[in-house]
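Subject: for your reference before the review

Hello V.,

The reviewers asked for a structural picture of the protein, and I figured it would be easier to keep everything in one thread rather than splitting it across files. Below is the amino acid sequence we used in the manuscript, unchanged from the supplementary table.
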Amino acid sequence: MPLAARYHSGMADISSLFVTRLYRAALSEHGPKVDPDELEASCFTIAEDDEAGQDWCEQNGYPGYTSYASLTDLPWRFPIFADLVKALDAHVTAFTKDLEFDLDGRELKLEDLWINILPEGGTHGSHIHPHSVISGTTYVSMPAGTSALKLEDPRSARMMAAPVRVKDCREEMKRFVSVAPAVGDVLLWESWLRHEVPMNMAEEERVSVSFNYRWE
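And here is what came back from the structure prediction:
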């Protein structure tokens, strides 16, 4: 069988190696039904009640709200988050099969689950998720004009003196790829993939729930 992706240029046969995989699906494709309106209402209720999280965001200059540094028990607090985790477990299982991981009798298990509420003008800078295997986000509220997820080519640091790509280069050749998810989508990627959320240009808040899975 030929390698996964090839590009024919004249007589040359050019292969794409070391592919970076991005999983995208509707949350509803796996697991119990998660009502999007109930999930959104739950996110805002938690944000309003989480004084420790509000304090952390203010002290650290985090725009909007995140429960990342304050709450570790969302599935216990609200049943809808328990259903969400069941759905995410099934999506991660599907992605794990695609990645052809040999788990050696162990499992990928949820490590962290947190809410993000990004107001107009808010951003989340470029970062990775160390010590995890798979990371991702499911999208709760995505008003028109809000930020896409921006993914960075993991080879960028090794390009050294390379010229920039042409503007209309193929997607797999770009240094950055932006993915505009819809409400109810779930995106998964390997945790080493650097990503960011550019400035939210919408007047409404952008709401998502992010998570990490570890190998144990």
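For the response letter, the relevant points are probably these. The mean pLDDT is 93. The domain at 20-215 is CATH 2.60.120.620 (Jelly Rolls).

Happy to draft the paragraph if you're swamped.

O.
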